[in-house]
Amino acid sequence: MLKARILVMATALSVLIPNAATAAPRFHPGMSSCRSSDAATRITGCTHVIERIDRETKHNKIVAFFNRGDAYLAQGGYDKAIADFSRALEFDPKSSQVLVARALAYKGKGDFDRALADCDAAIKAKLQDASAYLGRGGVYYAKGDRDRAIADFSEAVKINPKYAPAYSARAVAWRVQGDKDKELADLDEAVKLEKRGVSALAARGAFYQAKGDHDRALADFNEAVRRAPKSATAHDDRGLVYHSKGELDRAIADFDAAIKLDPSLASAYLNRANAWRGKKEAARAKADYETALKLRPDLAAAKKGLQEVEKYLAGKAAAPPPLPSQEPRR
After folding, report:
1. DSSP for 200-233?
2. Domain spanning 9-156: which superfamily?
3. Among 167, 156, 148, 166, which residue's Cα sits nearest to residue 128?
4. In whole angstroms, what is the distance from residue 299 CA to residue 289 CA?
5. How far apart are CA 269 and CA 48, in angstroms?
6. What pLDDT, on the 0 to 100 scale, is given for residue 212?
7. CATH 1.25.40.10 region(s) of the chain?
8. Is 37 helix (H, G, I), strand (E, B) or coil?
9. What pLDDT was estimated at residue 270?
10. Which residues of the chain have pLDDT under 70?
């Protein structure tokens, strides 16, 4: 899970780019949906606007293509996102906001050269754009160039000292560099600046858990759940801490909550399976491993867990050794 969070920190800039949703001279009925925080709703609304795009102002044209592209990006539809961002750039070729967004889509596809080209163009168009440096730093990080990544994250912080995502991203790079003190310092700053979000809290909670400081980890994840009670990942994260503390019933309660909120979250089934194993509930563990693998067939930890549980159940009648419990997996 920590690895996944690293990618989110380094690339989820589209969430940080505000929808170009200021008042426009003309207003299409679908524009309200085109500005929705829900990706699917945004795609539907923006598509309605785009269907009659020739009648729209330049402002609305950019908004419609940018917001729909942003929604596709959030869903992992990189080619569709690139197509929409490219259309938006036809109306404003030097928009650093749209260039950075398209860079993220190229990065998602693994096309780092085009991603860097877009970030460079965004920086040239607007030198003091912290998001452009954050985006380029994320591309360098993905390419394995940690020094350049840190330099760009640091430039983003210099431009905007209150830019929490830049501190979070740099913290990830410090972790890979092995500098725990700088990592924690940046995480602390990100948590201080991120008044309502939970990504910095989750990252710091993972940092503390990796150190074995479960009480501090739990404090961060409790706050994350308080801020975002409908976040499946927040419950999943907290459940892992409870598992590490040996509080299996509380862990299972959090995994239950995560699954209820997001039935497609494979990690929650995997983590609950491991907790069931800790309680010697092999049949329940088997069912959860199987569900995790249906959702993510490549989940190696679930494959291994399922094999071990099936072996145990097959030999149960022959007085097998006690079922080994599993450590929580991120």
Report:
1. HHHHHHHHHHHHT-HHHHHHHHHHHHHH-TT-HH
2. Tetratricopeptide repeat domain (1.25.40.10)
3. 156
4. 10
5. 38
6. 94
7. 9-156, 196-330
8. coil
9. 97
10. 1-29, 317-330
